[in-house]
Design a protein that fits this description.
Length: about 70
């Protein structure tokens, strides 16, 4: 799955995203979809993970990277 997502990131200019962060974003969105959230894209996919992946590719999953906390 990552082999298909990471090249897409390079095309969209989000090359500074880590694979781990991408997977976390997609997984969290998939959980929201499974809990009843409406998909943000029109798709024939039925699985929540595939719907979330398509939303990520379309740039529809908003997120913010917070600075590390100082101890």
């Amino acid at each position: 799955m990552l082999d298909r997502i990471i090249p897409q990131l390079m095309k969209t200019g989000a090359s500074n995203e880590s694979k781990f962060r991408v997977i976390l974003l997609i997984a969290r969105r998939a959980k929201q979809i499974q809990a009843g959230a409406k998909p943000l894209v029109h798709t024939a996919a039925r699985k929540a993970t595939r719907i979330a992946r398509e939303e990520f590719r379309a740039g529809l999953i908003p997120y913010e990277i917070l600075p590390a906390a100082v101890r």
